[in-house]
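Fill in residues.
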């Protein structure tokens, strides 16, 4: 928690602040600490005011708001998903978020969340795999080597001990970039020529593609017994990555069914197809992996409690830190009801110092 400050000032974490915070902590340490917050909040699932994200879809993408509250803190994230953006040198996904105090309604933190979303998505994937993947798994296939890929690899190494990484993307340059970025971190990396080659020998398969369409990244014949699938890319209506037959052979675990049934891989299935909520596995209310031959599937679409966890974690990291900017965000008149008087005083000050107001 930042030191006491004027009520009009809200701590702001810029992209530069976030990068410095991650690097000063250590990326893998940051992922492990963030994962602990994500898991803690899954354990507090019943406390949360939850709603599926509010989405505005267009031909080329989606803009979403993702709110959640535990009764003491409230958070929301603004996030987009526009796969075509890469053609114009822009990010597919950008985001920012706010953490607020429920008691007063005052914002406590405004933060970039483009980097933070990549970190929290990877941390959540690894938390799920900790409960669902085969014990002692050392090899992961990573299909789709875009902006999320390195974070996924590091999260699975730091939380599960993954040693071998098999990469594939339809764009070889993306695979080469991912390989290069991870090459100094001690992973055994194989660049593959097809998705089929990538899944050979993998106990964990992560799919993280960006195209906004129903696709078949994994076909049924590619999935053998005992694997864990971490399906990250399917996250909106009309966008999936797995052949339907894989779903029918798998034990499916989800974050929040009302959202996942609309956006996730299970949009391909009947509305009443049985799924298990991840929080019930984490709290021990139900079983995750039950056998060595079971196929487990985490149908991950990203849920607002994970963003809540990420913002809560970052806010706690600011205790004693200077890695934030002071943003003059809130009007704070001397007398709370005299907002217009605050404007008049500003006018008077400007008249005394005309340079304060420019045309």
């Amino acid at each position: 928690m930042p030191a006491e400050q004027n009520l009009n000032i809200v701590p702001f974490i810029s992209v530069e602040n976030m990068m410095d915070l991650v690097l000063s902590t250590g990326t893998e340490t940051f992922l492990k600490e963030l994962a602990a917050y994500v898991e803690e909040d899954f354990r507090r699932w019943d406390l949360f005011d939850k709603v599926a994200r509010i989405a505005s879809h267009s031909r080329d993408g989606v803009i979403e708001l993702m709110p959640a509250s535990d009764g003491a803190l409230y958070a929301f994230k603004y996030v987009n998903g526009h796969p075509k953006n890469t053609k114009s040198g822009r990010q597919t996904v950008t985001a920012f978020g706010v953490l607020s105090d429920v008691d007063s309604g005052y914002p406590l933190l405004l933060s970039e969340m483009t980097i933070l979303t990549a970190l929290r998505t990877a941390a959540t994937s690894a938390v799920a795999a900790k409960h669902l993947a085969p014990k002692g798994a050392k090899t992961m296939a990573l299909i789709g080597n875009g902006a999320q890929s390195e974070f996924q690899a590091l999260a699975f190494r730091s939380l599960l001990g993954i040693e071998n990484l098999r990469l594939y993307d339809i764009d070889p340059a993306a695979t080469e970039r991912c390989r290069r970025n991870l090459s100094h971190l001690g992973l055994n990396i194989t660049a593959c020529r097809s998705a089929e080659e990538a899944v050979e020998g993998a106990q964990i398969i992560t799919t993280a593609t960006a195209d906004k369409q129903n696709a078949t990244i994994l076909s049924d014949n590619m999935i053998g017994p005992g694997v864990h699938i971490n399906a990250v890319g399917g996250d909106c209506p009309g966008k999936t990555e797995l052949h339907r037959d894989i779903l029918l052979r798998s034990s499916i675990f989800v974050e929040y069914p009302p959202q996942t049934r609309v956006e996730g891989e299970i949009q391909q299935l009947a509305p009443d197809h049985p799924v298990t909520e991840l929080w019930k596995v984490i709290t021990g209310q139900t079983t995750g992996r039950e056998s060595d031959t079971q196929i487990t599937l985490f149908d991950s679409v990203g849920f607002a409690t994970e963003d809540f966890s990420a913002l809560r974690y970052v806010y706690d990291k600011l205790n004693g830190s200077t890695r934030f900017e002071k943003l003059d965000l809130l009007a704070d008149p001397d007398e709370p009801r005299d907002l217009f008087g605050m404007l008049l005083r500003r006018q008077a000050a400007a008249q005394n110092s005309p340079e304060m107001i420019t045309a």
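The first helix runs from residue 15 to 25.
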